[in-house]
Specification:
single chain, two-stranded antiparallel sheet, Nitrite transporter, mainly alpha, 2 strands
Length: 318
């Protein structure tokens, strides 16, 4: 005797329903457009997110970060020698340490993003840390208690005290840590907003990269010209305050755009997947080469690390 299953949209008999729907297993991705599955609606909702409309929020974050870090680092030696009265050798060492730290922290930021937080929350948390560092740095340039007194006549200039340098170094460390979470995630997060399986959005991905590097170049140009000019001719308070305000606005705008973003969930440590590949390759080192059609593919496993739902095979390394 055939029973009927009634849904909101239509009626299906048990004989029409696939076996995995009866026993509670997760349906394959190919059935995600079927109205009998909640995943179909989730997939449709996910496809409505992302796209070009999310780009202003992402670009604002990257432009503000470049304004701040390039605008300060390009003229940092002048600030350390003229405002903090550090010897040239000590100022150069500080600049080198800051640049080296800011170059290493993206490795940590990328790992945290892929393994634990995801790109959106990594960018958000890092931007807030960066903002705190910029506020502290601006305060040290504006408030006289955070820097040594001005030089008087021909008398030797008083070098910044230990606690004044501690505030400076803590501010630089916060900006370096913040930059480490922003730099490796922003461009990848922007690319996540486009569906690679949609031919129209696939072409827009290249437009995104073009506009991304254009905006980054313009931000660097403004930083080394306008921001540096303000620092030298108007004052360090304005020269650091402008990027600080811009960064604050970008953080707010980036978070406001959250409902429109397409987010990939963190899928665990990439080192674990790398180790699995190495172990699998060693175990199967004696297996002969197979054709492309015989390669093992698992849509559900690949979905977490590919918005397209499948990692495309390449003959480049064969």
């Amino acid at each position: 005797m055939e029973s009927d299953c009634v849904t909101e949209e239509s009626t299906y008999s048990f004989t029409e329903l696939p076996l995995y729907n009866l026993i509670g297993e997760r349906p394959p991705l190919s059935s995600m457009g079927d109205p009998r599955f909640g995943e179909g609606k989730m997939e449709e909702k996910r496809r409505r997110k992302g796209g070009i409309r999310t780009m202003p929020f992402i670009f604002a974050n990257e432009v503000s970060e470049k304004l701040a870090v390039v605008g300060f680092s390009a003229n940092m030696i002048s600030y350390l020698t003229q405002q903090m009265h550090l010897p040239l050798a000590k100022a150069a060492t500080t600049l080198t340490n800051f640049g080296g730290t800011a170059s290493l922290t993206p490795l940590l930021g990328a790992f945290v993003s892929d393994a634990y937080l995801g790109r959106f929350w990594t960018i958000t948390a890092s931007s807030i840390i960066y903002q705190i560092g910029m506020i502290s740095l601006t305060a040290s340039a504006v408030l006289p208690h955070f820097r040594p007194p001005s030089c008087v006549g021909n008398q030797p200039c008083q070098e910044a005290s230990t606690w004044q340098l501690s505030v400076l170094y803590a501010s630089l460390a916060l900006t370096a840590v913040g930059a480490g979470g922003i730099r490796p995630c922003v461009v990848a997060f922007g690319a996540d907003q486009f569906d690679g399986s949609d031919p129209k959005q696939k072409t827009r991905t290249w437009k995104f990269f073009n506009w991304y590097y254009f905006c980054m170049g313009v931000a660097i140009l403004v930083a080394v010209t306008v921001v540096v000019y303000v620092q030298d001719n108007v004052g360090w308070g304005w020269g650091l305050g402008i990027p600080t305000v811009a960064m604050g606005v970008s953080v707010v705008s980036f978070v406001v755009g959250y409902p429109m973003y397409r987010n990939l969930e963190p899928v665990g440590s990439p080192f674990t997947r790398l180790a699995q590949v190495v172990v699998g390759a060693v175990k199967k080192r004696g297996v002969g080469m197979v054709g492309v059609g015989e390669l093992y593919e698992n849509d559900e496993l690949d979905e977490a690390i590919s918005l397209v739902g499948k990692l495309i095979h390449t003959d480049q390394f064969t």
